[in-house]
Amino acid sequence: MNIKLDKKQAIAIGAIAAAGIVLAILILGTGNSRTAPPAAAKVEAHAEKKDEHGHEEVEGRLELTAAQGKAAGVVIATAAPGRIKTTVALPGEIRFNEDRTAHVVPRLAGVVEAVQADLGQLVKKGQVLAVIASTELSEQRSALLSAQRRLSLARSTYEREEKLWREKISAEQDYLQAQQAWREAEIAVQNAQQKLSALGASGAGTGASKGPLNRYEIRAPFDGMVLEKHITLGEAVKEDANIFVISDLSTVWAEIAVPAKDLATVRMGGKAEVKASAFDASAQGTITYVGALLGEQTRTAKARISLQNPDMAWRPGLFVSVEVVSGEADAPVTVQSTAIQTVEDKPVVFVQVKEGYQATPVVLGRSDGNLTHIKQGLAAGTPYAAQGSFVLKSELGKDSAGHEH
Asked: Rounded CA gap, 349 and 384, in Å?
């Protein structure tokens, strides 16, 4: 049956069909816009953890080649068993070695003719520090010269009398008197020499042809540094005037105050490590003195550590920290203390892996400043960054900041 549609009916039917098609498209689009299933979301999240090269990123990992690590100052060590020392830390101060410090006095009154040493000067044993003109010294040297001449005359007389006595020409009494006079002259010379030696002066080679008898040279008692100087040219000084203080700074003392509870640890002959407070330096020393009495006010005992000071870096007056070993304990896994860094408020050690370095969280045990016990997080034999770990931490922070953007 043929149905003929007029023009208006055809237009109406076409409009209805078009509306149906549009409605179907809208319904299908709404269905496709729903949330993807969980599996698909995981795939997307996993994809987002890849860098621009398509490599999967691991949290806390820093990709560096061995050459880059070496250039950054990274030094690799291996976690291993170790012995952790327990120490007692006490504050102290560097002092002069009083056994090698001298207060130089003239021992003779006189007038200063020359000053040849100055503050801070290094002097050698026997070096002339100052010259004094002393009347007393002149008298002592004159007495020695007179005694030496009398001795020479007494010896000649004795030798002559001995010859005459043996030849039966002179009486034995004359011979014995000459012998006694010779011995007394020897004693007089020895006495004069000892007096000069006690004054630190010498009578040998003195005389008008050798220089003034009153010239007294004050010399350094040992190698050291001039710490104090209280003498000027033309000054009249007394025999007990403290004109120089010299100290041998090749050895110094580190003095500490030891509480009663630590006296069992700080003992004579024990070893101690002295660390400077003002700069990065340390030295090993030996405990050479521990006081037997406690101070009434402080209730502490004085102790001192003897230090070698060849470069004079340990200057008297310098504040130090003294660590004395009180015990030792074995630890199954230890790392160098310089390897430990803090990332997100947690201690980590940068472990060497194939791709670079991995910031590995660890649980710390006791430490002696050199080695630290790792309770958890590392196994013995694990390679780690012993030096340069701070550089790795900085680079890791830069990477984290870059990914946030």
From this structure: 7
Look up residue 392 and give its two tokens: 């790795």
Domain positions in the chain: 62-84+330-400, 88-98+249-327, 101-134+214-248, 136-208
Contacts of 9 (CB under 8 A, 6+ apart): none
DSSP-assigned beta bridge partners for residue 90: 322
With the C-alpha atoms ordered 222, 228, 234, 236, is the resulting torsion angle positive or negative? negative
Q: What average pLDDT does the chain have?
A: 82
3-class SS of residue 298: coil
- Residues 284-337 pLDDT 10s: 999 999 998 888 888 899 999 999 998 889 999 999 999 888 778 889 999 999
* 162-172 tens-digit pLDDT: 888 888 887 88
d(CA 6, CA 9): 6
* 383 touches 352 (CB < 8 A): yes
CA dist., res. 304 & res. 286, Å (int): 8
- Using CA atoms, how far residue 399 sits from 59, 329, 339, in Å, is 11, 39, 20
Query: Looking at the domain that runs over 101-134+214-248, which CATH code has it been given?
Result: 2.40.50.100
Task: Please say whether the beta carbons of 383 and 76 come within 8 A.
Answer: yes
DSSP state of 55: P
Contacts of 85 (CB under 8 A, 6+ apart): 325, 327, 328, 368, 370
To which H or E segment does residue 286 belong? strand 282-290
Tokens linked to 350 = 């940068």
pTM of the model: 0.58
Helix (H) or strand (E) segment spanning residue 254 = strand 251-259
Return the CATH class of domain 136-208: mainly alpha
CATH superfamily of 88-98+249-327: Efflux pump adaptor protein, beta barrel domain (2.40.30.170)
Residue 101 above 50 pLDDT? Answer: yes
CATH code reported for the domain at 62-84+330-400: 2.40.420.20
Q: Give the residue from 20, 89, 69, 11 showing the smallest Cα distance to 256.
A: 89
Q: Which residues contact 195 (CB under 8 A, 6 or more apart)?
A: 140, 143
Q: Which amino acid is at 255?
A: E
Tokens in use for 293? Answer: 């009495």
CA neighbor of 358 nearest in space, from 349, 367, 366? 349
Residue with the larger pLDDT of the pair 29 and 97: 97
- CB-based contact 246:220 (threshold 8 Å): yes
